[in-house]
Structures are given as structure tokens and as C-alpha cells.
Amino acid sequence: MIYQLGSTLTDAIVLAIISRGDAYGYSISQQVKKVADIKESTLYPVLRRLQQKGYLETYDQPYQGRNRKYYVITEAGKQQYQFYMEEWKKYRMEVEEIMMGGMENEQG
Q1: Which member of 7, 17, 55, 86 lies 3.0 to 4.6 Å from 77 by CB, making a disulfide possible if both were Cys?
Q2: What is the pLDDT of residues 77-86, one digit of tens each?
Q3: How many CA atoms lie less than 13 Å away from 11 in the CB half-sphere?
Q4: What SS3 string covers the chain?
Q5: CATH assignment at residue 62
Q6: Which residue(s) pair with 67 in the sheet?
Q7: pTM for this structure?
Q8: 107 within some domain
């Protein structure tokens, strides 16, 4: 992808992923990588920030002799995710209108 993700869109994507079910850092990073070139070392500060804001909580679960930290979305996180979704829908429509509207006018 050639488009850069800002911190707000990154937060929204992370909350979207975790809203579908509890997840650990590596699995989150693999899903984010589908739309952005993000390193795991970049993701963990995002997860910490979302946790500090009260949008995420964590718990440990044993996995192959070690504890794996899982992230779970809180009620406040669900509300923030819904806010991001509404804003995304508006933004996407406006961008598509500009990008696709110009093409339709040239063709029509």
C-alpha cells in the first residue's frame, strides 16, 4: 500500500481487529500488515496507548510454556470504535466522491 496510516487510523484498525475477538500482539500485527507497512515494535506503543486510554485491557494465557498477552476491547473501546467507524464512513464517502466523481465527470 502506498498510503500512509496516521495514528488515528491505526488506532481505529487495531480496535476493529480486537473488536472481533481477543488477540495477541503478533496476530494483530499480521492483520494490520495487510493494509500498512507496520513493524511489531511500532504496534506495541499503539496497544499501550489504547490501553492507557481505557480502550483495551489485557490478560495472560499460557502458550507453549510461556505466557502470551491477549488484548480485549473494553466498553469504552467499543464506543470509540463505533465513533471511528462513523467518521470512516463519512471520510470514505468524501474521498470516493472526489476521486471517483472526477472520473465520472470526465467520462460522462
Answers
A1: 55
A2: 999 999 999 9
A3: 23
A4: CCCCCCHHHHHHHHHHHHHCCCEEHHHHHHHHCCCCCCCHHHHHHHHHHHHHCCCEEEEEEEECCEEEEEEEECHHHHHHHHHHHHHHHHHHHHHHHHHHHHHHHHHC
A5: 1.10.10.10
A6: 62
A7: 0.86
A8: no
Quick: pLDDT tens for 15-25: 999 999 999 99
Q: State the helix-helix crossing angle for 7-19 and 75-107, rounded to 10 degrees.
A: 120
Domain count for the chain: 1
Residue 51 sits at φ, ψ, to 5 deg, of -70, -45
Between CA 32 and CA 22 the distance in angstroms is 15
**The C-alpha cell that represents 37 in the structure block:** 507497512
Q: Which of 69, 23, 77, 81 is nearest to 50 (CA)?
A: 77
- Which residue matches cell numbers 505466557? 67
Asked if residue 19 is part of any domain, the answer here is yes
The x, y and z cell numbers of residue 80, run together, are 470509540
